[in-house]
Amino acid sequence: MKMEAKYDFERKFREQVLKCSRCGFCQAHCPVFGATLRPAYNARGKMLVLKEVMEGKIELDDELIETLFQCTTCASCYKNCPSGVNVPEIIKQVRKDMVNIGSCHPAFTGMHEVLQKHPNIYGEDTPADFERERNRQAAYVFFIGCVGAYREDESTLATLALLDRLDIDYTLIDEVCCSGVLEDVGFRINPSLAQKNIDLILATGAKTLMTGCPYCARTFTNKPPYDALKEKGIRVLHISQVLKDFDFGVKTDKIVTYHDPCDLGRHCGIFEEPRQTIRKIAPGFIEMPHHHMDALCCGAGGGVRGAYAKNSIAMARRRLQEAEAVGAEVLLTECNSCVHNLSNAKLRKQKIEIYTTTQFINQLLNPQ
Amino acid sequence: MEIQGYTLPDELHYEENHFWVREEGDVMVMGMDDFAQQMAGEIVYVQLPAEGKKLEQGKRFAKMESGKWLGKVYAPVSGELVAANENLETNPELINQDCYGKGWIFKIKPDDKGELNHLIHGPEAIKKWILADIEKYKQEA
Amino acid sequence: MEDRIKNALIDIVGQANFTDRLIDRVSYSYDASEHHHRPDCGVWADSAEQISHILQLANRYRIPVIPRGGGTGLTGMAVPQRGGIVLDLNHMNRILRISIEDRLAVVEPGVVYADLEKALDKHGFFFPPDPASGKVSTLGGNVATNAGGVKGAKYGTTRDYVLGLQVVLPDGRIMRTGSRTMKSVSGYDLTKLFVGSEGTLGIITEITLKINPRTTAASTALATFRNLEDAGRAVSQIMHSGIIPSVLEILGRETIVAINQNTDLDLPVVDAILLAETDGYTRAETEYQMQRVISVFKQNNAEAIKTADTAEEAAGLWEARKSAYGVLARIKTGFVLEDVTVPMAKIAEMLKGIKAISERHGIMIATYGHAGDGNLHPQILFDAYDPEQAKRQEAASADLFRLAIALGGTLTGEHGIGLQKAAFMTLEHDPAAMDVMRSIKKMLDPNNILNPGKMALEN
User: Which end of chain C has less neighbouring CB within 10 Å, N or C?
Assistant: First the structure.
């Protein structure tokens, strides 16, 4: 047994790694294992690899990237672990250790570099134009997030249309990537990007920051580089929390199901607000077998969509199978990343429709 | 022909955004060329619109994604979409592995085969075009 | 691993289904036991034919092959103790057929128990042997270890439900055993030979299982006993009640204390708590049965008896039993879960003996288990990285085995022998029995390539 801890993950989480009793129960919950059936990718497999690193049996190096960087950090394993091992936190820390020693998945080194030079994770310079004013004085700021701005523009337009309809006094800002994702893939939030966002938000005089991206919401709420928002008494809300009290006066008789995004549900405890809205518009609402705390991850999180797209989409495919199995015609969710991954996973022959709730409501309000 | 590591068969016609076209009886088969495939990296998603969709030469009608890039697919000829390679739904990397063969993407029933004349064709034209794009991407990188 | 062997394996299963990557070899080194050893590689097989080719190759080059399902075995039967090829069966995960009229289901070995349960539930049927690991364990593994579960007392174990198998023998021959009928006595019962054989006699590639219609009513009760002897006697006397409860579980004092310290369940701290369930098709029927069970409890000085009127209340009574494993798993870095089983009449004595062993070796042992079929789970808790404590655990386990055998019991009710208990096989089985087991092994696997080093099958 080595005496000295060589890495931060060992200093912080040694007890936890050792607490893994290898029962394997996580295999029932891990989305990566579920889609690949490869024990090396499962939470247990990851803890075993780290245990052997701590024991000095193997090195922390590039060989381990394929498993340590292939975790959506959905925390399903942690929530069901009889021994209470917080796998996602351990993984995020070991990724930082690996970056420190120069061992990282190229997709994430790439992402880090992109965010040094560009304001979004895609490296695109032309900001998406949503035909609305930016940086006004307003009571609310609506923060779109990279996926909403560059990959799911229809969903963003729909959300903005609803906000307009409700006469909410909001403004967009010349936002840049919240860069929260960097914390999860071995790096740190880009302080200049964070400061830019903070400055723009504060300049509007808004007291509430709304966003459609659960990940951005978590970053603004929990991460120290954004503490200034808390200090200035700015409330951070996800759009579902804003919309839950409104009645749009539309209904559908389609069978609708709801996918709890990991970042909104399991990580933030926001389960009922989206359902409140959906139940008003869809009397035929039905749950999938895995819902609320037990929801099945769509596979996009933790950087996996960027680094292991094939497996990421395979995970999304499993979630769609659940939706189809309960007879859902429409799958609604509250995260653009989930919509993106699930839509990519949908096969041509599958008839299920996938939207964010705001997109669906907007469609019902404007039937073509 | 082979230019600086990129394979571009002489007999094909090319749309300037790097989509190739080949006649197969009544229809035109199209796909992505080797240059674009190499630039994009591993293709992870190809949008496959439904059969019957009307296409216009030069206009975008679908999208593709690799790990780092979202690309638009442009129609090389006007016509009707009559088939899509459904193998790409579960194996989009066929485009990387065999972009001129198993990685074909769409089949189009053309309105006017003459439109092929608007496309890049023949070793001279291909060479000029590829060398220019190689330069362009080098500068952007 | 030599290149020519590696290439030969890739020829059989395809590049994508072969791995000698470090990350895979690490996972395949372990199951849920304390044992581990590196394999040379892992392969995923898709069919009996592929497996046949793999085993022929293994025989030619004398390479060990270790079958693996969910990897949740507790005694090391899936650990590649001599290196070799881990044969991962998880890709063979189809439910091939469910026939309600024939009362059977046919599955591939990689089907997860919980998925079979879900599929049968749609028809109002279930598969009674329900191991605690059922969410992740696979039927192939369940058959290879004769898995039990909480319903064992009334419904028996996996062995009682296997009607037939398709097996690939160590020499590569593909063989069928048993029948697709409810009963058959045609020839030797080869099916039963392979059930519980822990992957040492053949690779199971298809399983025909008998299934039961689901019961629709249940009564649940929780009884506390200040005195260990009273609880033990209550269990032993259950047979006198005239009925067999579908569930009869026990929680010992140390387990109760641990549960109280780690949850907000606030159980009464007594020597033992018994959880009983009776099942059937009407509430009247299950209540009638439960009254008989409760009168046995009362006759044996049960202090408090709680019953349930609703499904929620029943779930509440079950919570303590369900939390036991998880709670105990968090207390120390190491634990060994034993599985000793004794005749029902000896339960009280066994429980007392466990307490004495714990004191004698100065090591914590928390007990719970399936009292209804005499299967106790003494969980020995210690610091896995302290070699001195590890030694005491080994000594305590050895004493547990000796005691169980002395009381006319067996080393293991449902977890199997694997590596963990191999050294104690001769304690339980006489020389003739050991000789016959070893002869069968030698006859079927003369080169000893299939899961070698397990179950004391080598001299």
Answer: C
| Rounded-to-integer distance, Cα C63 and Cα C66, Å | 10
The pair phi, psi for residue A285, each rounded to 5°, is -75, 135
- Does the structure's ipTM exceed the value 0.90? yes
Neighbour order of strands in the sheet with B27-32: B54-55, B79-84, B106-110, B27-32, B19-24, B13-15, B120-121
How far does the CA of residue B104 sit from the closest CA of chain A (Å)? 17
Alpha-carbon C269 to chain mean position: 29
pLDDT (tens place) for every residue of chain C, 459 residues total: 899 999 999 999 999 999 999 999 999 999 999 899 999 999 999 999 999 999 999 999 999 999 999 999 999 999 999 999 999 999 999 999 999 999 999 999 999 999 999 999 999 999 999 998 999 999 999 999 999 999 998 999 999 999 999 999 999 999 999 999 999 999 999 999 999 999 999 999 999 999 999 999 999 999 999 998 899 899 988 888 889 999 999 999 999 999 998 888 889 999 999 999 999 999 999 999 999 999 999 999 999 999 998 888 999 889 888 888 888 887 887 889 999 999 988 988 999 999 999 999 999 999 999 999 999 999 999 988 899 999 999 999 999 999 999 999 999 999 999 999 999 999 999 999 999 999 999 999 999 999 999 999 997
Pairing of strands C364-370, C334-337: unpaired
Cβ separation A58–C22 shorter than 8 A = yes
For residue C211, give both structure tokens. Answer: 């299934």
Q: Judge if A267 and A224 occupy the same domain.
A: no
d(CA B2, CA B34): 10
For C332, nearest residue in chain A (alpha carbons):
A19
**Domain spans of chain C, in order of start:** 3-88, 95-213, 215-323, 332-421
Residue C430: other Cβ atoms inside 10 A: 9
Query: Are B48 and A151 within 8 A, CB to CB?
Result: no
Question: What is the domain-level CATH number for residue A193?
Answer: 3.40.50.2300
What residues of chain A, 84 to 103, have a C-beta less than 8 Å from chain C?
84
Looking at the structure, do residues A330 and A356 belong to the same domain, yes or no?
Answer: yes
C17, C27, C122: best to mutate for the A interface, most A CBs within 10 A: C27
- The CATH number for B2-140, chosen from 2.40.50.100, 3.40.50.12780, 3.40.50.2300, 2.30.30.700, is 2.40.50.100
Q: Is residue A131 part of a domain?
A: no
Which of A1, A29, A38 best tests the C interface by mutation, with the highest count of C CBs <10 A?
A: A38
Question: What's the DSSP call for residue A167?
Answer: T
What residues of chain C have any CB closer than 8 angstroms to a CB in chain A?
Answer: 21-24, 26-33, 44, 70-72, 88, 90-91, 93, 112, 114, 133, 135-136, 325-326, 329-330, 333, 335, 384-385
Indicate the number of domains in chain A: 3
Say which CATH topology domain C95-213 has.
3.30.465
What Cα–Cα distance (Å) separates residue A128 from each residue in A98, A146, A151, A241, B54?
34, 10, 10, 25, 27
Please indicate whether, in this complex, the C-beta atoms of C329 and A19 are within 8 angstroms of each other.
yes
Chain B residues lying within 8 Å of A122, measured CB to CB: 68, 70
Nearest Cα residue in chain B from A314: B90
Amino acid type, A367: P
Residue with tokens 């007594």: C270
- Calculate the CA dihedral of residues A322, A324, A329, A335 and round it to 10 degrees: 30
CATH code of the region C3-88? 3.30.43.10
The domain of A98 spans 8-103
CB A177, CB A223: distance < 8 Å: no
